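During the reporting period the student researcher (J.K.) took over the structure-prediction task from the postdoctoral fellow and processed the backlog of single-chain submissions. One of the processed entries is reproduced below for the supervisory committee.
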Amino acid sequence: MDQQVYGKPLVYLDNAATTQKPLCVIERERDYYLHENCNIHRGVHYLSQMATEAYEHARQTVARFIDAKESHEIVFTRGTTESLNLLASSLGQLMSPQKILITAMEHHSNLVPWQQMVQRCGGQLLVAPMDDKGVLDLQAYEDLLKQGPQIVAMAHVSNTLGTVNPVKEMIRLAHQYGAITVVDGAQSIAHLPIDVQDLDCDFFVFSGHKMYAPMGIGCLFGKTEWLEKMPPYQFGGEMVDTVSFEKTTFNKLPFKFEAGTPNVGAALGLETAIQFLEHLDRKAVEDHENLLVKTTMEKLSAIVGMHFVGQAPEHSGLVSFIIDGIHPYDLGTIIDKMGVAVRTGHHCAEPVMTRFGIPGTVRTSFALYNTLEEVDVLVKAVTRAANMLR
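J.K. obtained the following structure tokens:
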């Protein structure tokens, strides 16, 4: 990224919120609107057929990327938030669950929909606790499973702490106690290889814009057996089979969950982002990002009053911190004036901040294009800002 802010080269470290987009992704979306723009699944003419074929090919690419058995197990949505709301709505109609288990480190998107569901049903939201380092208490988690939750929803990677949860083991335990499993992969999809068959999750959701794809596109993976049982989330065009004034029947998978005109250009951009990632050495990228995290924590730890929020041994993608006596917002504001973009606040995970007794954190989050030189710029900016605010 060759851009300046406040007369300084921009160091962009807010990748957990959204990543910057490779030129190939931008060009693919632009190319669609220049040469293929048409509504899909509804026309026999050439342009509609071409756009439909491209859109369904993108679905197949997503299925391959996360190792879904069938492409119809991939439902395109606007992102993680819509995917989770879809599940809360459809599963809520299907089973009216009385107990749902989440973890104490969830983003609001993987908390509020389930909370509202159980409140409507007069049920209970169970919360698996974590320790002071941001590590899930797996024994407490299993003890809560014994209370019989019908659904277990879990973050793969915490957007505030960077904790990588042992989701494969969590899924195994949940299935042992008869629960459906939902994995929020918003923060893991860009950093870790995902194999939904190996995880054996019932559902996996993610957003494109956190993995170098356009905004406004995301995916819900669901096992066929569950998607077949679930009622539609929205009603209208495309998701129907037959319609009369007396009765409506619904389309087959995945179309019964894709009402209305989809974001075709963004779906093609998502496919291109996946192809971009697949051409990289994913292990080398993961190692590079882990080095950025490790180096950042090592160098920031020299600042007096520095405290890291989230120090799990299994850690990915980001560093959250506070400094004694300094409000995160004040710190972030001064850092911004030095050309470094970080996120401050509760990061849509207010209960996490309550757990640690803090108003928020400064969060630095990394992508494959960040460098060790940028870490040095960050450390200098934080050091200078801290000295100014003391």
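The committee noted the following: The chain has a mean pLDDT of 96.
J.K. will present the remaining backlog at the next meeting.
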